[in-house]
Amino acid sequence: MTIFLDFPAGQFDAGVEFWRRVTGTTLSELRGEHDEFATLLPDQGDAYLRVQRLGSGPAQCHLDLHLDRADLRPALERAIELGGTHVYREAADVDVLTSPGGFPFCLVPADDESQVPPPNRLVGLATTARLDQLCLDIPPSRWDAETAFWPELTGWDLFGVDEPEFARLKQPENLPLRLLLQRLDEEAPAVTAHPDFAAPRSASVARAHTELGARVVRVNEGWTVMADPLGRPYCLTGRPLVS
Q: Which of 28, 36, 122, 237 is the most exposed place for a label (fewest CB within 10 A)?
């Protein structure tokens, strides 16, 4: 799986610079017809974070699911059968879809990426963190459809966690990202998503992120809600780091 951080065109450079610094990565060369895509490259391991310059719209996230080429067509057909919508084919082997609740994702061919990067340490900070999770923020009316869709599409079991408003997919251990599903308290037009860091010393990480332009939105027991310089929400959670 790959998280795409999508930026409005005029905020691409500043937004990417923030995320490059908090993830300890370097920016690849730009690619695409309009130089709209790039990869955030870790010092060790394989990349799983990418960025996109949008033609319009606010800062957001979308998900890429990487499959063997022989599985792309069956996965597309299965996604539609489960209530997903095929938006368009971006290339010969890249399909853009939305989930039943309207969350954008792509089916793309897998490469040979298999090494999960280690946690990164920000300069001057005596602790580490790693962006290792995408949380789908699901309006109450979309909850049943989304919690049925993602386990069936991926083949991963869904299980509850301590908080009743969350559910998690049980994924293979060698993946760099986890998927968390969160039921929102209030309705919204569509499912959105935000990234989460595993940051056992989240208070120290929050201070480092604010020095780079983020702001603290809310401190909860176990996690801190942040906003990047563009206002994109993300969380620092007290979960243990897994290399």
A: 28
**Closest CA relative to residue 53, chosen from 1, 108, 10:** 10
pLDDT in tens, 155-188: 999 998 878 899 999 988 888 999 999 999 999 9
**Residue 139 sits in which domain range?**
120-237
Q: What is the CATH number of the domain that holds 42?
A: 3.10.180.10
| Beta bridge mates, 134 | 179, 195
Residues 6+ positions from 67 with CB-CB distance below 8 Å: 75, 107, 108, 109, 110
Residues 154 and 191 in one domain: yes
Sequential DSSP letters for the chain? -EEEEEEEGGGHHHHHHHHHHHTTEEE---BSTTS-EEEEEESSS---EEEEEESSS-SEEEEEEEE-HHHHHHHHHHHHHTT-EEEEEEETTEEEEE-TT--EEEEEE--S--PPPPPEE-TT-SSEEEEEEEEEEE-GGGHHHHHHHHHHHH---EEE-SSTTEEEE---TT-S-EEEEEE-SS--SS-EEEEEEE-TTHHHHHHHHHHTT-EEEEE-SSEEEEE-TT--EEEEE-PPP--
pTM > 0.90: yes
Residue 6: pLDDT band (50, 70, 90) is very high
